[in-house]
Amino acid sequence: MTTEFTQDNRRYFDDLAAKYDFPPWMQEISARITTYLQEQLVFLGLSEGATDGGVSLLDYACGTGLVSRALGPYVDSIQALDLSANMVARYKDLAASSSLASVKGAIARVGNILTDELANEELHGFSIAAICAALHHVENPALAISKLAGRLRTEGVLLAIDFVEDGVAQYDSPAEHTIHKHGFSRDEMKGMMDDTGLVDFEWREMPGKVALMMDNDHPIFRTVFLARAVRKSI
After folding, report:
1. Judging by DSSP bridges, how do beta strands 126-132 and 56-60 pair with one another?
2. pTM, whole model, 2 decimals?
3. Which one-letter DSSP state was computed for residue 42?
4. Pfam families, from UniProt (predicted)?
5. Which of 61, 144, 200, 202 has its CA 20 to 30 A from that of 183?
6. CATH of residue 220
7. What's the number of domains the chain is made of?
8. What contacts 159, CB < 8 A, 6 or more positions away?
9. pLDDT tens per residue, the chain (234 residues)?
10. 2: Cβ–Cβ under 8 A, 6 or more apart, which residues?
11. What CA–CA distance (Å, rounded) separates 31 from 207?
12. DSSP character at residue 165
């Protein structure tokens, strides 16, 4: 069942989609995360060389496609999902103009992995499943991690990209009503991934803080982390 909190997220990101990519501060954050991800290919179980033709990515809470574009050169196929229909539409527009075959051919759709609406067989067996800057918006993060883990093939990698917990209970931000919690600790992420049966947990923090300019007079400085773990058996 879709909750009112989830509906608030859907409405907020539907309204934001058309202008999401345009603020310079957002472009800078996207560029930094893209560069950092592409520096962490071994950490993510990917390689710079030719793939075997079967490397697949599930980009969950895909937004306009940051993770798809960052990892597109290293995967063969992409399935993208988001709660927001307008974000999915924007994703498709950007993907259509991509020079990367995996991004141009990506299948993007509206969906909520926490419900049973996405039980399709085609949404299983991924090499990597990623959720970027969205887990803090999810009402039940542990359930989201479990559901994403269940979409992986054996030796598949679950990747969560989000903000390190900083102890702040609330920010002065127009997105505040869509945020479940303001970040995660290493132990918290490890616990959620361990609990769903994933192994080989690793955590890395992106050097330097990013500046969220939700209010130009009061930037919010946050540290971005990558947490990953591996599914060893189906």
Report:
1. parallel
2. 0.94
3. T
4. Methyltransf_23 (PF13489)
5. 200
6. 3.40.50.150
7. 1
8. 44, 128, 129, 130, 131, 226, 227, 228
9. 568 888 999 999 999 999 999 999 999 999 999 999 999 999 999 988 666 779 999 999 999 999 999 999 999 999 999 999 999 999 999 999 999 999 999 999 999 988 766 666 578 899 999 999 999 999 999 999 999 999 999 999 999 999 999 887 677 777 888 888 989 999 999 999 999 999 999 999 999 999 998 766 788 899 999 999 999 976
10. 112, 115
11. 13
12. P
Q: Which DSSP string corresponds to 190-219?
A: HHHHHHTT-EEEEEEE-SS-EEE-SSTTS-
Q: Where are the beta strands (DSSP E) in the chain?
A: 56-60, 77-82, 107-110, 126-132, 152-163, 199-205, 210-212, 220-222, 224-230
DSSP state string for 58-86: EEET-TTTHHHHHHGGG-SEEEEEES-HH
Distances in Å between the alpha carbon of 218 and those of 21, 29, 164, 208, 232? Answer: 20, 17, 19, 18, 44
Between CA 234 and CA 223 the distance in angstroms is: 33
Per the document, the length of the chain is 234
Category of 133 on φ-ψ map: left (φ > 0), alpha (ψ -120 to 50) or beta: left
Write out the two tokens for 8.
């608030």
The secondary structure of residue 136, as a DSSP letter, is: G
- Of 119, 130, 88, the C-alpha closest to 106 is 88
Domain span including residue 167: 4-230
- CB distance 199 to 149 below 8 Å: no
Q: Is 230 helix (H, G, I), strand (E, B) or coil?
A: strand
Structure tokens that stand for 223 in this block:
């540290």
